[in-house]
Structure prediction request, 331 residues.
Amino acid sequence: MEWLELFPEPLHGILGKLPETVFKQLEEIRVREGRPLEVNTNGEHHFVTSAGRLTLNHMEAYKPDREDAHRLLDFISNHSLYTMEEELRKGFITIPGGHRIGLAGRTVLSRGRVEHLRDISSFNVRIARAIPGIADRILPYVADRKSGKILHTLILSPPQHGKTTLLRDLARQLSYGGLESNGGRRSGLKVGIIDERSEIAGSHKGIPGFDVGPRTDVLDGCPKAEGMMMMIRSMSPDVLIVDEIGRPEDAEAVREALHAGIAVIASAHGRDVAEMATRPAFAGLTTGQELFQLYVMLERTSRGVSFRLADAKQRRLTLPGEGQHGGISYA
Prediction:
């Protein structure tokens, strides 16, 4: 696990003692100076003792001190914090492998805007994983059964429900092509990924760390709105994949791509389409014009993550043999 190496001792040793079943299912590791070490696994939160044991009692947990926090920040920044000024302004750092580390501390303002962070005392390490095949059950609905064209698709869920994991596997499968359910062969497509936070492809020095397919081009670290237009002009993709659209300019770029005849598969925070429609930036994307043709809504259950599908008019689609829900079963 390459992400474990970013933790200095004693955090490295404590996390390395976690039970293997827990270690393999880690989603988040939260390090807060002077407060209990916490992990999130399969949506369940526990504190961690100095012996690597999970507990619900915060009094039993290991409490990282100032030295732990300073050394962790030093490791994350590769001993060169001044080179991470842009990341510090955004409040997160993405390391090789697509793992994102959220940061909190004291903000430094310039003309009323956040310039960067200092006195960083909280870290949220989000573990990125590739799960090949996780999009198997959704893929037949993403491609129109009659024409074979990829539908404009919006994936919705609250944070930590697996949107990025799903997008990653959709990119891989669409790029490779493969067998259709009717036995025919689906050709691989040119896929363009706009990876503003380096999470989908996990690129390092421009090279994807995850398998996102042989016909996939990645624009890494680029703002989504600008990146979508750049990708359309320079790489002529068949499909654009973009994670966590949320700003008005993102919505406008998606609209431009849709009108350019390029399939768009995007994700956004939200429980359902009705909730998305209340946000002014997305009202025109989700109502009236019906630009998206398929909605995939992820929700966490006691069995993992399940999904619901809806068409352009927000009518639920029924999955064969499973009513309106289908189990994805991933964390």
Notes: The CA atoms of residues 155 and 267 lie 4 Å apart. The chain has ten helices and 18 strands. The chain has two domains: 2-126, 139-327.
